[in-house]
Design brief:
It is a single chain. This protein is an all-alpha fold. Helices cover 65% and strands 1% of the residues. Among the domains are: 1-33; 57-196, no CATH class; 296-377. Strands 1-2 form a two-stranded antiparallel sheet. The longest helix has 22 residues, at 325-346.
């Protein structure tokens, strides 16, 4: 996580607290600072941390190194004998890190070092800022922090986590009034979420929302930040809190963007997830049934969000103990079709494609159960 806690007692301090005058390590007060110096080893680390750019940068660099090692290990079976498509080397010339790949690239494409991906993304953003390019170009270039430049699929899993730390490390020195500062914080929060560090992710996302509120961010940015927090509540099993936020966010998206917008459709998916978590299947089914034709028209039949809407509709059909046979059959048919499209568009190892296969098996089992004659094996 970013440094929002006392280094000794872990008290949550936000952006406040007392900082070491040399390296900016954060404390809740003088007592913890003295304890850390006298007995916690800070007297030996302080100069090293300062040399590393201060506590936040030192911490981010350490976390980045750990995250890259995890990502390389996760990708090891898929990357044997490959080279980075950016620098053309197997080992990074400076960090000596190995290769990763977490996207939809086929064959020998898409292999890279996390450091090369990060350097490429930062160079593109630096050029855009220096040349004062428009917002559309800036947003396209920012995608390099979280999506493959070859297949355009978003990174997932450990690679996303490592790039989150790389992005935060690249921009954490900027003032919090700089829009990229908060956007980099968002990348870190998303990366931590991808590797299932949900408590750490929530801490980062709450800190991001505080930064946005202090700086008078546009309403649409606040909606996104609040949605990220709601999603993390869900991951932590805080379903009632997640549903309350999602209901409000969906209503606000409809008001701001209208029902036939990508933003509202994405929020509808999240709202349906929250309803399904609390077994409110009828409400989720109604919401998704209304959204399916809109998504097909606005986003396209094979777009990932359209597939997720159809998936949630199917989930609402087969979930529950008293689902009619016709609903179970429709759910299985829908999962089969969505799974086929997901494998073709995203690749068979993409988490969404894997999840679809898993839920398809459950739906088939639910369909088979009432059709099995009494007393049959």
């Amino acid at each position: 996580m970013i440094l929002t806690q006392c280094a000794v007692c872990a008290t949550e301090l936000g952006t406040g607290g007392k900082r070491c005058g040399r390296c900016s390590t954060l404390y809740c007060g003088p007592a913890c600072q003295k304890q850390h110096w006298d007995a916690g080893g800070h007297d030996k680390l302080c100069k090293k941390i300062k040399k590393g750019g201060g506590a936040e940068l030192y911490h981010a660099g350490k976390k980045l190194k750990e995250a890259v090692a995890v990502a390389v290990e996760k990708c090891a079976d898929d990357t044997k004998g490959q080279t980075c498509y950016i620098c053309t080397q197997a080992l990074h010339w400076k960090t000596k890190e190995g290769i990763v790949r977490m996207c939809a690239c086929r064959g020998t494409a898409g292999f890279a070092h996390v450091s090369c991906l990060a350097e490429q993304a930062k160079i593109l953003m630096d050029e855009a800022e220096e040349n004062n390019l428009d917002v559309k170009v800036m947003n396209e270039r920012w995608r390099r922090w979280y999506a493959c430049s070859l297949c355009e699929q978003k990174y997932h899993g450990a690679v996303c986590g490592a790039l989150g730390w790389a992005c935060w490390k690249a921009y954490l020195g900027r003032p919090e009034t700089d829009q990229i500062y908060a956007t980099a914080m968002d990348r870190l929060g998303s990366g931590l979420y991808e590797v299932k560090l949900y408590e750490d992710s929530l801490s980062v996302k709450e800190a991001e929302l505080s930064v946005l509120l202090r700086n008078g961010a546009p309403e649409c940015n606040l909606l996104i930040a609040r949605g990220n927090i709601a999603g993390t509540y869900r991951a932590l099993g805080r379903f009632e809190e997640a549903l309350r936020m999602r209901r409000d966010l969906y209503s606000e998206c409809v008001r701001i963007h209208g029902k036939e917008s990508r933003e509202t459709l994405v929020e509808a998916i999240c709202y349906a997830n929250a309803l399904i978590d609390l077994k409110r299947f009828k409400e989720a089914r109604s919401l998704m049934r209304e959204a399916i034709p809109v998504a097909r028209r606005v986003l396209g039949e094979s777009q990932e969000h359209t597939l997720r809407i159809r998936t949630n509709y199917a989930r609402s059909l087969y979930s529950g103990d008293d689902a009619p046979l016709d609903d179970l059959r429709e759910a299985v048919t829908t999962f089969e079709d969505v799974g086929r499209i997901a494998r073709h568009v995203l690749g068979g190892t993409h988490p969404f494609a894997v999840d679809i296969e898993h839920v398809l098996q459950k739906a088939r089992a639910a369909l088979a159960a009432p059709e099995t004659p009494s007393g049959s094996a």
